[in-house]
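queue> holo job accepted (2-acetamido-2-deoxy-beta-D-glucopyranose)
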Amino acid sequence: MLGLKSLPLLAFLLVTVCAQKKNIRYMPFGDSITEIVCWRGLVWTNLQTDGYTNVSFVGSGTNQNPAGCPTRTYDKHNEGHSGFLAIDIANKKQLVGWLQANPADVITMHLGTNDIVQKSDKTADILTAFTTLVGVMRASNPVMKIIVAQIIPCTVGSYTSQINALNAAIPAWAAGLNTTESPIWVVDQNTGMSSTDLRDGVHPNTSGDQKMAAKWYPALINALKIIEASATTTLSKKEIGFIS
Ligand SMILES: *[C@@H]1O[C@H](CO)[C@@H](O)[C@H](O)[C@H]1NC(C)=O
Ligand SMILES: *[C@@H]1O[C@H](CO)[C@@H](O)[C@H](O)[C@H]1NC(C)=O
Ligand SMILES: *[C@@H]1O[C@H](CO)[C@@H](O)[C@H](O)[C@H]1NC(C)=O
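queue> job finished
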């Protein structure tokens, strides 16, 4: 028969089991370059191949791939919103509700293209919006792991200098907001991406999707490993708590 003294141990075991079963939640966040693209499917496939079947993609969107995507069956949840500006998402506080509905442990953000193309927003104003968005992420989850893109080129129109200016400013901006518990990693999605990687001058085609997935993937794996390491630390702290 189980004595009362066994109850704390049982409680600990239940906590452990529940914690292990909880999937890591990844939110792909951005505009159409996150929503109507094929790279999310490629990232998901890479995760399955590497045994990361415990990662759930989260977000309100479940859009199908555009025609011709190599991967059809994957976790399509994402928070990519075609045509959206970083400045609007920040000012309208839209990410607040999105993260309330779908909390995340790790997030990738590719934003700024629409700010530049639609409104010619200045680098400083886009970065102010990014700062607001990082604040929203951390208010939702104080240990949010944040991966921010230096954005891909746009080869229609004449936006290269503005995109380059934003991309050049992103590393120092990110370093200024970096914390140990909620790190920001910058991923250069611009270098190596050319007009032949874009189906319409804006969105990646097959080769562009492969390049984007290959850039996101190591940063995502790095974040997943850090999330797992901190989960283990938290559990051993709980265990010590029960013993003392
Ligand atoms: C998730 O899967 C990876 C890869 O198989 C593994 O290393 C990790 O321990 C798993 N994490 C959890 C919390 O189950
Ligand atoms: C933020 O800190 C992490 C370590 O916690 C580091 O890997 C990363 O490069 C830093 N990010 C920036 C933009 O400096
Ligand atoms: C990508 O699109 C560009 C421009 O439409 C085209 O030149 C290139 O062949 C395409 N590449 C692939 C792999 O689809």
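queue> The longest helix spans residues 206-243.
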